[in-house]
Amino acid sequence: MSFGEPLLLLGLVLVPLAVLAYLQSERRRRVAAAAFAAPAVAGSVAPRQPGFRRHVPLVICALALAVLILALAKPQTTVAVDVERASIMLVFDNSGSMQATDVAPSRLLAARAAADKFLGEVPSRIRVGLVAFNQAARTLATPTTDQAAVRAEVDALAPSGGTATGEALDTALSALQSQTDASGARLPAAVILLSDGKSTSGRDPVLIAQRAKRLRIPVYTVALGTPTGTIDVKTKSGATITRPVPPDPDSLRQISTISRGQAFAAADQGDLSAVYQKLGSRLGKKHEKREITAGFAGGAFGLLAAAGILSLHWFRRLV
Length: 319
Hints:
Layout: E1 2-3, H1 14-36, H2 42-45, H3 56-72, E2 75-82, E3 86-93, H4 107-121, E4 126-133, E5 137-144, H5 147-155, H6 165-177, E6 189-195, H7 205-215, E7 219-224, E8 230-234, E9 240-244, H8 249-259, E10 263-266, H9 269-283, E11 285-291, H10 293-315
Parallel strand pairs: 3-4, 3-6, 6-7, 7-10
Antiparallel strand pairs: 1-2, 2-11, 4-5, 8-9
Helix pairs in contact: 1-3, 3-10, 4-5, 4-9, 6-7, 7-8
């Protein structure tokens, strides 16, 4: 919780001052009572003592004062609200290593299935675009609410070539920069980068992640695959060799950290679907501060009313 007018919290010093004033008043009252009647006969002069009830209404009033001062300081709380408009770029690795079958039925097919599910569940007001990359980056769909069109492009992807992660990120950021509302302000945006290997060509993706940070566009990375993943590759002589294609979660984690996103790892299709589900709910909401002054003010007046009612009930007078 935060406060819109934090300086007004200095008023809370009034509460202990009021308590001290009350204690001094009680001390003077006891001194006066002792002067009026000796302690030995005080019971016969004033046989009925209110005991702790004497202090209860005033304690409640002190608490009400503290709550009222908090209300004057304009308390705020952070809540998650639905994003009315936002843009997401799916940056999809379709390099040759995506044909590895360590994620059944293959990395690419599992990634396509999870992306299809994500597109089916993302709020309709969210614009989604697609950049696919191997040794080159291609914008297959600019951010749009026509998620069926994006799904069709995802389903048509086939594995081939190398991995130009930096070029793909740069292409995605350029597309998101052009997404504005009616007033010309850039819409909230994010990138979801799914890859299974280390960048092998093009610009350094770490440098592009720094650009994403400057643009305030977080990059959420998903490292797909297992360390034992392999693919069969034909050599120029026609022979087939087995090449290991482990994922590179460290590089992807560095990209997400720099851009202030988050890194995920998915070793199977279930993990990948869970990641997309988590990202869908996260990117479909934003955090806003809401003022809750009315609640505090209502609580303060409620406490004052309770103090008054108790005082009337016990002593036939207000506090």
